[in-house]
UniProtKB/TrEMBL annotation:
Keywords: NAD, Oxidoreductase. Residues 20-476 form the Aldehyde dehydrogenase domain. It comes from the Bacteria. Its EC number is 1.2.1.27. This is methylmalonate-semialdehyde dehydrogenase (CoA acylating). GO terms for molecular function: methylmalonate-semialdehyde dehydrogenase (acylating, NAD) activity. GO terms for biological process: L-valine catabolic process; thymine catabolic process. It is an enzyme of class 1 (oxidoreductase). Pfam families: Aldedh.
Length: 496
């Protein structure tokens, strides 16, 4: 079987506590084994990154930018290969995977503008003969610990900006779909990035803990589930590192009576079932505001039932499998639990079988109506193709439901009224908001991040907040005395 090794200092490195199986979700068969790195491999990777930082931290902006432009072109040229690699290990459709690669590439494009983003400020003559300027400098070795659901895009929220800012980087990808990270490492090498600037250590908790504890790691970016985000934030902060920990989500779509209901149903179904619901910005809960509930559920059911489920690389498939057998079990248990708790199972994809792929990790779209905030199916992040519908009497009640939820990643409102939209935008305690847009993922030049249990730390990913995260400020105050200086030095605190 194919083995997937670490990429350290510009070369493939084996080693660790053993190997984990990488499954092919569409067939349910093992397809590769990935090395599980531990302290030894982490030490090697961080040492390579420290060594590379010695020179990369001083490389000119023009050269750094040149690498980013070259990487951007390589990612575009290899878009199809990358997308197929994602589909093989994650399961999503190739079209969806291609979208992920494009959204990741947009962050590289943002990083191509790093000279503009790193421009400091200069104040002339802050005091007589004194000038002052500020600049942003890199941190050193930065780490990215990333989830399975976007194996190309989420790491690209991190490493292009970190590296363009002058840092070196160690990525710890998800052990469920590890191959794209190695592919990207080779693209970096082809783009002219010196060895050791971008490294990949595969593994699970052992590799993560070694990275979080390593004294030479300056900053950690994490994206994944809330319990691990919180753990990573606490453990890495305890050793003085800068940390951003992006966590899980339960994203609500509110539908008001003045919305275009067929359009809202189409958009919500796409946001709920795309990538089999395995997106942190997936809509997983609808709050239907009276009296639209019954009509909306009928429309959503029609959309859900029409979705073509099949292998991600098969033309015509709109939704692939979930990532593992355990993920499938979790989804089925959530649907069963909701049934027992009194929810109405309007569309039940639990028994779906895909011809020729009977062992694949498929589960069809599920639509659960009459769900209440006390039910587990509402409280959990199911992270599968399950959409639950709650009812509210008015917009204020819908906003109260959203604000009472511990997560705060994304939300969307469907309406034709500007005043309601404004009230919703201002009133919800959520980081990313869509108005008639179901998946409001910010563009690369804005920043991505939620509130509450969806983010630990306070800096969002990419955009200008990404640049701020991967740099630290320095302010210089300088005075160049004229050749003849007669005044005595004063000992009081300097003022202008
Ligand atoms: P996960 O938390 O299981 O894994 C994320 C990373 O943490 C992986 O690299 C994994 O190897 C590592 N990890 C797992 N268990 C660990 C442990 N006990 N100790 C240390 N490290 C550990 O998440 P996942 O299942 O890969 O991804 C899905 C989750 O990610 C969902 O909750 C989803 O909402 C979230 N997510 C959030 C965002 C966001 O921007 N907020 C984006 C994508 C995904």
């Amino acid at each position: 079987m194919r083995t997937i090794e670490h990429w350290i200092g510009g070369t493939s490195v084996t080693g660790g506590s053993g190997y984990a199986t990488v499954w092919q979700p569409a067939t349910g068969q093992p397809q590769a084994e990935v090395a599980l790195g531990g302290r030894v491999e982490v030490d090697l990777a961080v040492a390579a990154a420290v060594k590379a930082y010695g020179s990369w931290g001083d490389v000119s902006l023009s050269r750094r930018t040149k690498v980013m432009f070259a990487l951007r072109d390589l990612v575009e040229r290899h878009e199809d290969e990358l997308a197929r690699l994602i589909t093989a290990e994650h399961g999503k459709t190739v079209e969806d995977a291609r979208g992920e690669v494009i959204r990741g590439r947009e962050v590289i494009e943002f990083a191509c503008g790093i000279p503009q983003l790193l421009k400091g400020a200069y104040s002339d003559q802050v005091s007589t003969g004194v000038d002052s300027y500020s600049l942003r400098t890199p941190l050193g070795v930065c780490v990215g610990i990333t989830p399975f659901n976007f194996p190309v895009m989420v790491p690209m929220w991190m490493h292009p900006i970190a590296i363009a800012c002058g840092n070196t980087f160690v990525q710890k990808p998800s052990e469920r779909d590890p191959s794209p990270a190695n592919f990207v490492a080779r693209l970096y090498a082809d783009a002219g990035l010196p060895d050791g600037v971008f490294n990949v250590v595969h593994g699970d908790r052992g590799a993560v803990d070694a990275l979080l504890d390593h004294p030479d790691v300056a900053a950690v970016s994490f994206v994944g589930s809330t319990p691990i985000a919180s753990y990573v934030h606490q453990r890495a902060s305890a050793t003085g590192k800068r940390v951003q920990g992006l966590g899980g989500a339960k994203n609500h779509a509110v539908v008001l009576p003045d919305a275009d209901l067929p359009d809202a149903a189409r958009q919500i179904a796409a946001a709920a079932y795309g990538s089999a619901g395995q997106r942190c910005m997936a809509i997983s809960a609808v709050v239907a505001v009276d009296p639209v509930g019954d009509e909306l559920v009928t429309l959503l059911a029609r959309q859900a039932a029409a979705i073509v489920v099949g292998p991600g690389d098969q033309p015509g498939s709109q939704m692939g499998p979930v990532v593992t057998a355990q993920a499938r079990e979790r989804v089925l248990a959530a649907v069963d639990g909701a049934r027992e708790a009194g929810a109405a199972i309007v569309v039940d994809g639990s028994d779906l079988r895909v011809g020729g792929h009977e062992d694949g990790f498929f589960v069809g779209p599920c639509l659960l109506d009459r769900v209440t905030p006390t039910m587990a199916a509402y409280q959990q992040e199911i992270f599968g193709p399950v959409l639950v519908v709650l009812r509210a009497r008015n917009l204020d009640e819908a906003i109260a439901v959203i604000n009472a939820n511990p997560y705060g990643n994304g939300t969307a409102l469907f309406t034709s009224g500007g005043a309601a939209a404004r009230r919703f935008v201002r009133g919800t305690t959520i980081g990313m908001i869509g108005v008639n847009v179901p998946v409001p993922v910010p563009m690369a030049y804005h920043s991505f991040g939620g509130w509450k249990a969806s983010l630990f730390g306070d800096t969002h990913a990419h955009g200008t907040e990404g640049v701020a995260f991967y740099t630290r400020g320095k302010v210089v105050t300088s005075r160049w005395p004229e050749p003849v200086e007669t005044a005595q030095p004063t000992l009081h605190f300097p003022t202008a």
